[in-house]
Design a protein that fits this description.
- By secondary structure, the chain is α/β, with parallel strands linked by helices.
- Helix content is about 45%, strand content about 15%.
- The strands form three sheets. It has a six-stranded parallel sheet with strand order 2-1-3-4-5-11, with helices on both faces. Strands 7-6-8-9 form a four-stranded parallel sheet, sandwiched between helices.
- The longest helix has 21 residues.
- The protein is elongated, with a radius of gyration of 25 Å.
């Protein structure tokens, strides 16, 4: 018998829905019992006797096939509701593991607001949930190692903050629900096929950058702008997607787009310096490599009095000139609410991706406004949220 067979996979899914927070433990029990049976033992040698005897009866039953096996499995599932309470320890609580590719203000804001919302939903770390937070330091190998550890520890849900993290986490979605956060284009990134009916055991929140609105703001701020720079890491799918949108906008508005890329802070600074000498303004999308080095880049731009338009309000608070965007605290909160639904038994496919593209604000950094000697057009003043 193959535990990963279709019927057994259906059983695990059924148990997840039925037992909600205890789902991962059920899966462990089934796997443990079967592996021991394969090696010549009986299920109750390794796991609690009550469940073990039930499993032995199922796996060694020679007289029934087809529907009889399915009915047996369902009976086991029903009995486990009561049995698990006696078999499992007090520490058997759901485990939610959170990973982010790198530390920077936008991602940290999502992580922290996620944590706070989980508390508001009634979860207390160490009591009725286990929460773990890991940062990969912008190293893909480290990220893969973190996610592999999450899977090995049998996390009940993995929260993947930012597109690179979500793409890496998707490798484990067959067995573990993945909830992404701050993925600009989930479909283009290959995570799902349908925002309203997410497949692949993956859903989450999207910070789809309103490229047209940000660049329209840049033109309102400076109607004489002719050359726009675009700084990004070509290895980040979200940035490539936004680059394509910027190209379309520039073509429609007769602007010259000059792009430059880098994979680390040193390369970013060199590429950025080239753009400063060629462009009237620079657009920095929600790129994790750019965001982690944005303070140094903005310092260079302010000396040249070149405005830097960003893809996130948190980057404006770090010194970028302006953006049109969402509130990342709300993004983190909504991510927590999705995790809560999954822990309570809702199927991932029934949780649509939440795209944050409404109720946008114009954010302007007051210090940068003064540093580059710009003024806010009269027609925009009432719409602007000033930041420092």
């Amino acid at each position: 018998m193959d535990f990963q067979g279709r019927r057994e996979r259906q059983l695990v899914k059924y148990l997840r829905r039925m037992l909600a927070l205890k789902a991962r433990s059920v899966e462990c029990i089934l796997k443990s019992g079967y592996e021991n049976i394969k090696s010549g033992g009986t299920a109750d040698e390794q796991i609690c006797p009550e469940v073990g005897r039930l499993l032995d009866g199922f796996f060694f039953n020679k007289g029934g096939k087809g529907m009889k096996k399915i009915l047996t499995l369902i009976m086991i599932a029903c009995m486990m509701v009561g049995i698990l309470t006696g078999c499992q320890g007090k520490n058997d609580v759901p485990k939610v593991s959170v990973a982010q590719i790198v530390e920077h203000k936008s991602l940290n804001e999502i992580r922290d607001s996620f944590h706070e919302e989980m508390k508001a939903l009634g979860y207390k770390d160490g009591e009725n949930i286990q929460l773990e937070f890991k940062d990969a330091g912008n190293q893909r190998n480290t990220l893969n190692s973190i996610l592999s550890t999450f899977a090995g520890n049998q996390s009940d849900v993995i929260v993947a903050i930012a597109t690179p993290t979500a793409i890496a986490a998707a490798n484990y979605s067959e067995d573990i629900p993945i909830v992404f956060s701050a993925v600009s284009d989930p479909i283009q990134s290959g995570l799902i096929d349908d925002l309203q009916h997410p497949n692949k055991n993956i859903t989450g929140t999207s910070d789809e950058i309103q490229v047209d609105k940000i660049l329209s703001l840049a033109l309102e701020m400076d109607p004489n702008m002719k050359k726009l720079g675009f700084i990004y890491n070509s290895g980040e799918a979200n940035s490539v997607s936004n680059l394509e949108k910027a190209k379309v906008f520039c073509k429609e508005h007769n602007l010259t787009l000059i792009e430059a890329s880098g994979t680390n802070i040193s390369e970013m600074q060199s590429a950025f310096s080239v753009l400063l000498n060629k462009c009237d303004a620079i657009f920095a999308p929600n790129d994790n490599t750019v965001a982690s080095s944005i303070s140094a880049l903005v310092e260079l731009a302010n000396k040249k009095k070149v405005p830097v338009y960003a893809g996130a309000d948190s980057m404006v608070s770090d010194g970028c000139f302006a953006t049109v965007g969402i509130n990342y605290t709300e993004l983190g909160k909504e991510t927590a609410r999705m995790v809560n639904q999954i822990l309570k038994g809702k199927d991932v496919s029934e949780i649509p991706v939440k795209v944050f593209k409404d109720d946008l604000n114009i954010y302007v950094n007051e210090d940068t406004l003064q540093a580059i000697g710009r003024t806010i057009p009269k027609q925009l003043k009432e719409q602007v949220v000033m930041m420092k």
